[in-house]
């Protein structure tokens, strides 16, 4: 049963259930643009882009996560996020993210590298560093 003014949310990655609880609001980077979901939202399903997911928890506090894409399903009974990867800002290993950023930049300089793949890696690393910098 939901707390009044909240909606159940589950964020699932291939390796774990990252979050399960009540939220007042979810903000996410949809393929067709960023969107917000509040309690009693109309049902829909959409894809996620690389970006930042914001949560306003039941107690009014806010959390942010970095994601590399996935899907969001909004039903009357709750929200489900199936993310390729997702991690809370405070969980991000900035050293690893900086190393990934440098690897992606190096790949972009190489002529034989898959440019699209290298650009995606660069975008993911930059997103993780941006989100990590906002950790409280």
The helix/strand class is alpha+beta
DSSP strand content: 35-45%
The overall pLDDT, averaged over residues, is 93
Distance between the termini: 30 Å
Helix content: 25-40%
Determine and state the CATH class of the largest domain: Mainly Beta
Question: Which ranges are low-confidence, i.e. pLDDT below 50, for 5 or more consecutive residues?
Answer: none
Explain briefly what this protein structure is.
This protein is of the alpha+beta class and 136 residues long. The protein is 25% helix and 43% strand.
What does this structure look like?
- The structure is a single chain.
- The chain has 136 residues and is an alpha+beta fold.
- The chain has two domains: 83 residues, F0F1 ATP synthase delta/epsilon subunit, N-terminal (ATP Synthase, domain 1, Sandwich), CATH 2.60.15.10; 40 residues, Up-down Bundle (Single alpha-helices involved in coiled-coils or other helix-helix interfaces).
- Helices cover 25% and strands 43% of the residues.
- The protein is built from two helices and nine strands; from the N terminus they run βββββββββαα.
- Strands 1, 2, 3, 4, 5, 6, 7, 8 and 9 form a nine-stranded mixed beta sheet that branches.
- Helix 1 packs antiparallel against helix 2.
- The chain is elongated and about 55 Å long.
- The two termini are 30 Å apart.
- The mean pLDDT is 93.
